[in-house]
Fold these 3 entries.
Entry 1:
Amino acid sequence: MFGKFEILISKFETVTFKTIRGTKDILPAETPRWQYVESVLRAVFHRFNYKEIRTPVFEQTSLFARSIGELTDIVGKEMYTFTDRSSESLTLKPEGTASVMRAFIQNNLGEAQPLVKLYYLSPMFRQERPQAGRLRQFHQFGAEAIGSPFPEADAEIIAMTIEIYRQLSLAHCALKINSVGCEKCRPRYKKILQAELRTIAPQLSEESRRRIEQNPMRVLDSKDENDIRLTAAMPLITDHLCEECSSHFGNVKALLTTLHISYTVDGRLVRGLDYYTKTAFELTSDELGSQDALAGGGRYDLLAQELGGKPTPGVGFAAGIERLMMIIEKNTMLNGLDVRPTIFLAAADSSSRSWVIEKTMELRSRGIAAETDFLQRSLKAQMREADRQRAAFVLVIGAEELKRQTAALKNLRVKGEREVSLADLPKILSEESL
Ligand code: AMP
């Protein structure tokens, strides 16, 4: 590592470093919005009694291959997989559920209670073709309810997903739901679909042709217009569900109606991950363009077993933060959320500088957002800085003020000032910032 660095420097090359394609800096102008969104979604998760889990950013490659499925796009072509120095194959998390389930099994979380409700917030990594709404490092929040096979858990997960967007004042979200069946009815349906697809194979797109044998249900999910037209009359899984899946799906729909959640059934909705059973859902927004999925989720009753744990049913969802941000950025209500100092202390002369620094630190330790000058600027320049920082108050301290132990506290918001005792400053500001 160091060797390479030295070579670069010794050549005196001018190098400019940039973010990797498909990754983004989240700059200080944007972070207040992110923090706001994060606080809203945490509040919703907590209201629904979901607890946060943080799993490592990389895991054994086989965890994802086993759970997401060898033949899926994610595992087949999108994972950031590397071999570390001990020749172990590792992968940066492409999604959250596999890691959460691994942690659930490894830490016996199911022992303490029959239903474990978890949420996460994490960067995810997929080597997709970058475009608007599609990044290579993106952020997801998601939740998993592990332990209930019943439709009430599906309904809660869907209701919670919707509640998050509602709390963020996002209108125009559409909920699509489907049932992708189980190990009893899905293989049967897959065979029927496969046979039908083979008859039109030569006319389908190359991608869909490939999927007929590997993952036929995903052909119905194709974005290719010709594929959509050709497969319009294909049999749908919803007409081939076994009794158990059919009744589960009926109950989920009934519960959504009880909860006043509108939805459309989309028999073509299959999610890009193999571990789903029964319920699958997606929330889309017409404000997003071609990458219109805000969130997706479903039930995964066989995943725990697949990963070597005891059979444990589960249901969850994951949502992209960047896509949410694309809509929220249009929402001017969220402008002005940035961090601003309550007070800027300006030193009128060099003799008062150290007092000003000491007072700034004292105010901060008393919980007041205080700022001062660290560039030895003139008083005029300090006043300009206080304005630029949009501080609520400014206090100018010089030798005279220190002698009097009083100073003029200027209110920059309402353009007024009053003489205050320096000793009372923390008390006055604490009351003001309430
Ligand atoms: P998935 O895990 O594929 O079901 O995705 C769940 C959600 O994560 C999607 O609905 C998107 O909001 C978001 N998402 C997935 N892939 C990306 C990506 N490459 N870039 C940005 N957001 C993504």
Entry 2:
Amino acid sequence: MADIKSILSQMTLEEKASMCSGFDFWRLKSVPRLGVPQIMVSDGPHGLRKQDDQADHLGVNDSIKAVCFPAASATAASFDRDLLYKLGAAIGEECQAENVAVVLGPAINIKRSPLCGRNFEYFSEDPYLAGELGAEQVKGTQSKGIGTSVKHFATNNQENHRLSASSEVDCRTLREIYLPAFEKIVKDANPWTVMCSYNKVNGVYASENKELLTDILRSEWGFQGFVVSNWGAVNERVEALKAGLDLEMPYTSSDDLIVDAVKSGDLSEETLDQAVARILDIIFRREAEKELNATYDKEAHHKLAGEIEGECAVLLKNENVLPLSKESKIVFVGEFAKNPRFQGGGSSHINAFKTESALDALAARGIKVEYCQGFSAIADEVDPALEEEALAAVKDADAVVIFAGLPDSFESEGYDRKHLRLPECQNRLIQKLSQANPNAVIVLHNGSPIEMPWVDSVPAILEMYLGGQAVGSAAIDLLFGQKNPSGKLPETFPVKLSDTPSHLFFPGDGKTAFYGEGIFVGYRYYEKKEMPVLFPFGHGLSYSEFEYSSLSLSKGEISSDESVVASIEIKNIGKVSGKEVVQLYVSDKTGKTGSALRPLKELKGFSKLALDPGETKTATFQLDKRSFAFSDGKGGWRTPSGQYEILVGSSSRDIRASATLNLTEAKLPKFIVTPNTLVEELLAHPILKAEVEKLMFSQQKSVETDAASEAISAEMQLAMMMEAPIRSIAMFGDFTRAQLAGLIEHLNGLLEDKQ
Ligand code: BGC
């Protein structure tokens, strides 16, 4: 490994400043005289988008031929850590072969609204799921000696005004919803780089947000790599460097600003040195891991793309129609059967070296069906001739499979969706065909949820998401039962757009995006509101059935600095082999004063088990402090003492078993009694409770007597008193101000040595 200190000491100020921006669109600078080589980065994150010439970051110009794997919206539905590792490793192999040092992904922003145009690139509405899967993808890629760039840090949850708007998010929501996936990946997978987002976070551009880039990312989480700007995200060059942004991409003409700032004393040379050292460290790490003459097998990766997609597709509904029989008379309708939409538009767009449609896959397997186009996959226009042809074909068929989905123009990087509908021509065709043939199966190609006005008229729906270049083979294997569906929804499908939690606030006024729904994102909202949804978070059917039994906890009581293991037995009671994603949710039942408003349940564990018919396996989950904690809004975590329910199930709305855990908060937050402390706070405090009850007991008798005479029950009086500050009790009671001061001093004295 190169001696970075020595190289740094030999670099001129100008050379150091210039290392902190790109050489061109995709390459970093080199310093040949000091043996610093040039490295290249490229987009992903679901394949490799390496551009040779005519570079751009919007997916406009071509890139080299590569393999397009399923997008993150699909891979998240696998709920399969090993699969994401495998995917990351495959992308890493391609980077080695193409001499790319860092792949720009995974993108792990939370799906705050299904309208975000880029949701197809993101994993989930749930931070735990996004973090667990993102970490495995990073580990997989980096296991091949290739760096990753976890993006977009942070709160880039919409495309509308993404370059300038400020995401206005309270601290608790940031800590519980928008940061944990980044935190998990940084702490567990050591990504080589993190990419900051374009937007402002609470008024400060992410690219110059010291709290995010230095205080949280480095000081708190221990991030070791370099921070790169999203392409063109830097506002003030010197301020960005001071805040912790190391590399500006792509190239820029502003390196002299850094030189001037160091010369004038506005920027310390140590800050610059630190940034350069971080960049050099990654350059030489890459050099050390570079495999000369590396190659990869494109066909094998194509096959892998299909296998991965087979683990991702979600069977949303199935009323005895699927799997199909090869012997039946089946009609396929919809242009997506021939030209599938398998990826989204923008910087993640891959130049797939080949695609395999459902019709291709049928031909390869020797299965015969009739095909009608039905509609155009590009325009939202009814074509009466195509409709008539399809209607005539399905009349006497055993089943009709309609390949529907969103056209490219409906969802993309760069702008948000306007609504959640499919093109009208598709909705109309689905209604007509399902009336003509009761066995209508809908196969969907979309990057994010859609409304389904026809949901009750069709017996089966298979969600493929944007399934990568081999989506057709996965669809056919799943439809005909060669493969058993095992994906689960990583996001809620709402009944309608106006049901969504951020509906009143999204996308904001163009200047600010106010995250008014707070922590109640996705199922956290729908559960609390007891709202009907189209399909809940975690939902997904199988051709088999699974029985849950014997949930047990390794301990019934723990302190919050201990962990506990939950285990449950899962049996395949169906007739075919399959996989079940067992989900564990935690529910805070403490109901304590001082505890926060919390979601009804939060995902804190999942495990995907492969089971043959009749086979039983045990799913185990390790739960620690963070499984029970909520953010105190100041960077700390609270786990109030009391009862927590452990819920295990097959979806967020299909809980099959529950157990209760008693938890004691190991370290209480510092508490100081003041005249404004509430009576209920004193009574909820483990150290003060007994003393305050003793004091109150002597008062209680008089309360009861008064209550009888004034027809207000003692219970009512007590309830009113509970929420009163102690100064007001003193005001109405016989207490003097001096007595109140004495009481406060006495109680604080009790706390003194214990916290
Ligand atoms: C996108 C990033 C991408 C970068 C480079 C930006 O517009 O937001 O995700 O990595 O371009 O193409």
Entry 3:
Amino acid sequence: MATPTDRKRPTLRPQGRPAPKLIFGDLWEYDPAPETADPKLKPRYELFINGRWVAPASGRYFDSINPANETKLAEFALGGTADVDAAYRAAQRAFTTVWGRMPGGERAKYLFRIARLLQDRAREFAVAETLDSGKPIKESRDFDVPMAAAHFFYHAGWADKLDYVAPGRKVAPLGVVGQVVPWNFPLLMLAWKIAPALAMGNCVVIKPATNTPLTALKLAEIFQDAGLPPGVVNVITGPGSTGGAIMAHPTAAKIAFTGSTEVGKTIMRSVAGTDKRMTMELGGKAANIVFDDAPLDQAVEGIVNGIFFNQGEVCCAGSRLLVQESVARLVVGKLRNRLRVLRVGNPLDKNTDVGAIVSRDQLNTIQAYLKAGVEEGAVMWQPPCRLPPKGFFMPPTIFTGVTQSHRIAREEIFGPVLAILTFRTVEEAVEKANNTAYGLSAGVWTDKGSRILKLSTELKAGVIWANTFNKFDPASPFGGYKESGFGREGGRQGLLDYCKLT
Ligand code: NAD
């Protein structure tokens, strides 16, 4: 039966009818607008230990490929336990002899220099990041690289003011920190980890993800250009086992991990019983909650930004949409119209909204979830969309008719897939949003400030956005509840995770 809302909007098609064949691209085509900056790639990257480029003890290398066209970008050293040992020795020496003793005001100068050098090479870094990860250039150019530089600037500002991090108490660095990061924000996650550690006076051994090592080695070039003392940051590339060696190494006073909950649990088991400090930034299954009084067009933009931004490969992605029943049809209709005009394709093109999935394995994982969603009875919808002939691409996908027991509503998919559920009351929205093992982020869309305040206390999520989504600032701490991990990155709280308090 037609609702009053449907009558006002005759252009909305009833659910289930096939999408029209006419698509945006048939009406007109944008001129190609590929980014032209030179990413300055080397054919081979070695390990970065003690301020120098070092061949791996194994003598072995692995390829990193461009997920948008499946061609090899460069090869990277396969670091092993001997290399991890050498990196920790260099880091411990740098900590004891130079960095741990240096006044904060001096450390700040290095951090400022790193931030400025990153800004100087921003376009080169953006292209390198897009080539390695498949994310659209407008994201790497406008978000990842500037935000990474912002983290170095922010922490440079703290380095000579550490007495104010915990007023009335003294702070001291921990020593050498072992860090491992994932592939979804390769450069930004490095900045989140390295900048606070260095500002506090710690030294670092860090591993980028196996799929996306490129910008970590380019950042090491910047460390050299900035004159950072040898051994203060050491970059070891390699597979998960190399990450395991970094996390379990006896020299590490603290370990900081960002990645999946499954690997986070493995790491916690491997260091149980040691006195290592730990920060775990793990998975998420955020609810984006839209009430009937919300500005719906803005909410639809927020939903799109929340899950289709960066191909949904975002730990805090709004992968569950909870929409109030009275506006559910309207919101889903608007969302479909919006998805029809998203451009999926060459990540280097400035017009592209949805780029390539990082790897074939990840694409297979996402497709297995699509199959599970359909088999469990949800209704899948994808806009008509021409995918490039090569590379790991998929259309943005929404599921309606989802229940809380469906795997697509419970498990982290890490792809451009949105599970849509409905609710009637505020209490039901809170209960459904919190009905997850995760607790990293959430979004609330409503006109009522009182409702935002109520939900911000009742939602069990580390970050809650109101009438916006995916907003970040280096001064704002980020981190999770429950299986999304513990510890904070960013802000004063993030610094506290890198120091001893006396
Ligand atoms: P992943 O857990 O597979 O890998 C993360 C990193 O850990 C990689 O560098 C990998 O090589 C390494 N690794 C793998 N096995 C290891 C082991 N046994 N010991 C030590 N290191 C090991 O995660 P991913 O697929 O690269 O990234 C996606 C995941 O990261 C998602 O679950 C996402 O939610 C999470 N993530 C969380 C945040 C956050 O801030 N909470 C941010 C970004 C990504």
